[in-house]
Design the sequence.
């Protein structure tokens, strides 16, 4: 098993702090309904999805800002791995990024906080807000 972080955090019942090495991702094999809902909303499970307006890419629509943030987190906790922009194409790396960020910034794995972290709290280019995003995620759960 690949341990992402050794932090004090309240892991949800599905052990979100652990990803079994080589686990098949997408709707097959993952046991985390929250993560599955985010993947569905962000990319409809398409590993090569690209947002033409923002440049976000991959199954979780990773942005360069998220790559920088996760690398800061890894450095802060003396982790030796580092993520690259190319890693946004990898579902496995995207899932690792998700869990690292959620573990540090959302240790109780609160859905509203997860939405604010992933979507942001401002208005999107099309006027949608995190509240809209939250309702869509809830609908997928």
Sequence:
């Amino acid at each position: 098993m690949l341990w992402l972080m050794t932090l004090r955090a309240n892991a949800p019942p599905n052990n979100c702090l652990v990803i079994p090495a080589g686990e098949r991702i997408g709707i097959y094999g993952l046991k985390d309904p929250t993560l599955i809902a985010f993947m569905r909303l962000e990319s409809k499970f398409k590993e090569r999805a690209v947002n033409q307006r923002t440049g976000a890419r991959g199954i979780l629509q990773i942005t360069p800002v998220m790559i920088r943030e996760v690398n800061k987190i890894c450095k802060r906790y003396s982790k030796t791995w580092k993520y690259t922009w190319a890693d946004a194409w990898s579902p496995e790396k995207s899932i690792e990024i998700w869990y690292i960020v959620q573990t540090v910034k959302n240790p109780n794995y609160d859905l509203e906080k997860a939405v604010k972290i992933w979507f942001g709290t401002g208005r999107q280019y099309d006027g949608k807000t995190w509240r809209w995003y939250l309702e869509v995620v809830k609908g997928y759960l």
Observations:
- The longest helix spans residues 91-105.
- Residues 91 and 136 are 22 Å apart (CA to CA).
- The longest strand covers residues 2-3.
- Strands lie at 2-3, 18-19.
